[in-house]
Amino acid sequence: MSDDIAAMLVEQVTRALAEHCDASTLREVEARRFPKQAWDALAPIGLRLALVPEDQGGAGLGLEAAADLFMALGRHGAPVPLAEDMVAAMLFAAGGLEVPDDGVLTFAAAGSAVPWGAFATRVAMVHGRRLHITAGGVANGRASISGEPRDVIEHATTLAEVTLPEAFGDDSARALTALVRAAEIAGALGAILALAVDYANIRVQFGRPIGRFQAIQQQLAEFAEESACTSVAARSAGRAADQRGLAGAAFEIGCAKIIAGEAAGKCAGIAHQVFAAIGITEDHSLHHFTRRLWSWREEGGTERFWARRIGAEAQARGGAALWPDITARDEEPSP
Amino acid sequence: MEGLRFTLRDAPPAAALRTRLRDFLREAGRDWTPEIRARSWMGFSREFSLVVGREGWIGMGWSKTYGGHERSAMERLIVLEELLAAGAPAGAHWIGDRQSGPLILRLGTEEQRRTLLPGIARGELAFCIGLSEPDSGSDLASLRTRAERVPGGWLLNGRKLWTTFGHLCDYMIALVRTSPAPEKGARHQGLSQVLVDLRASGITIRPIRDLTGEEAFNEITFDDVRLPDDALIGQEGAGWTQATSELAFERSGPDRILSSYPLLAESVTALRDDPAAAEPLGREVARLWGLRRMSLSIAGMLENGEDPVRQAALVKDLGNSYEQALPGNLRRMADMDTMPEEVRRMHAYLTQIAPTFSLRGGTREIMRGIIAKELGLR
Lengths: 335, 378
Prior knowledge:
- The complex is a heterodimer of chains A (335) and B (378).
- Chain A contains eleven helices and ten strands.
- Chain A folds into two domains: 2-168, Acyl-CoA dehydrogenase/oxidase, N-terminal domain (Butyryl-Coa Dehydrogenase, subunit A, domain 1), CATH 1.10.540; 172-330, Butyryl-CoA Dehydrogenase, subunit A, domain 3 (Up-down Bundle), CATH 1.20.140.10.
- In chain A, strand 3 and strand 4 form a beta hairpin.
- The model of chain A has no long low-confidence stretch (mean pLDDT 96).
- The longest helix of chain A has 35 residues, at 214-248.
- With 335 residues, chain A is an alpha+beta fold.
- Chain B folds into three domains: 10-126, Orthogonal Bundle (Butyryl-Coa Dehydrogenase, subunit A, domain 1); 129-238, Butyryl-CoA Dehydrogenase, subunit A, domain 2 (Beta Barrel); 243-375, Butyryl-CoA Dehydrogenase, subunit A, domain 3 (Up-down Bundle).
- Chain B has a four-stranded mixed β-sheet with strand order 1-4-5-8, with helices on one face. Chain B has a four-stranded antiparallel β-sheet with strand order 2-3-7-6, with no helix packed on it.
- Chain B is globular.
- The two termini of chain B are 14 Å apart.
């Protein structure tokens, strides 16, 4: 049942994104304008309630299904803050608060930059297990590598303060951001790969499409490998969170973010190599995606952050426990 | 790109089976040297395979009629994973269990199934695969070893090269030409798979010493070798299709991910007090987890009767790159001369043998060619 809802939502969102968003939407965002037309077209689909439990009036989808939606958004460069909005609504509900039915929601860990902060009407700010709901406040205009709004918000008024369930753990905003960005990276990789394959099949040099050269084929195959691995990792991390709660899935989410971050660097490099000079131009749409790869890998914990944590845990447990620990994680029966 | 889609799959709860395997392997592995553990499924021990067979861990999915155990593909995967994680010398039964047995089960005659499969499942019969030849490596369809029809059977002539454990095995399943190659194109036609009893007369096996000083692979020459009528496996002329349809099974297993795992585990222990090693070790662990999720996904697709041959090529290349990179990555974490002897020796062996990981079972370039084709690059 919820699988059907998830598939239907992915389809609707994908269709709406294709219809209402293109490179001009991404340019709008990078110019620090809220893409109102795109938002107004996508908001009515009702993604806000996707992750809200059914008994609180939502669709009750889990994070594995959410990963598919984040991937769909990433495939179009996440031109609107729908992922942030969905997750913020989930936090509202988890804290027992009523989910607002208008405006734009976002979330962040206390002290971190707030994605789309300047345009949000409500921010779910997470301090350990405490959730503070604030109004937009004063945004400082900070932006990511790709020019997406990542404001540090000051002088925000707290409208409500509640405690999140234990299963969320003490670092839920970081884990959720990591999951969102890992999945969005997977989506963006899919989009870039499709662009690169099309280009390699039409760009002619030495009398044939460059896609016929083994050197190009091998690089794009490597890209496809990283892309597939990132997608499996992001969806698996979401599944682990559904099975064991966010805190219980920190390992999987961290692994997925490491895989996504490494893939982002490698694949952006390959894409630019295939497109050569045209891919560097402002006019070409490639950079909207590759720059987002470079941005997103910085958020929700970098490869370095998660690898240190996962490595330190493995060291503390010792080599003999490594394999038993990995296999035990996959054997949790679904609830 | 449909052929690169992965469906998620979890391993089934199997704590009891894993515990049984781990207890068994701890006991069996008491005297394994670092080199034996580093060799993993390229270690050949008849004694060990006999014990594994007695435990019911070979031919797990096959019908009991043929000596199998009628267990699920996922249970079999668990057995393979545990053997690899322990660095068990499983080479004597690995090919029979992974490839030759399933091929005989699927395409062999009733007679072939009854005579061969129970022996494989008991760990008694060791198989090797005859593909490469002196002039045919990645371009396998150019192979020239041929079997000619003669009264009462076949006459085999030619040469196979790089046949792992050929000098230690009982049988080879060889891909050979049974009718001349057409003038142009369609070179894949006219090939067949034949069963060769390696004790037959006319066979000369010359072991080839590798760079570690070991003799694992060979050159096998066939000089008017008489094969019986029933040496043919499957259909005459369908050898190429048959051999390539094994590939999803051959390429997707945990043996493409875990070949250097024992070194990783030992390194985690050896470096447990080094804070600077946490990050690079964490990256290794994360990749391992991701690859295992992909491997489980393929096992699930195989169990559902799908044919994820392209996904298998993709995971093989990623997995090979991972297991191959480990010895080099470790050097960035520690000076090997300061490491415990166990780690130093495993590292020494794997450093030398790791280049083969992206050669065996199809080279990196062939795997990436398969993926590129699926992407629509021509």
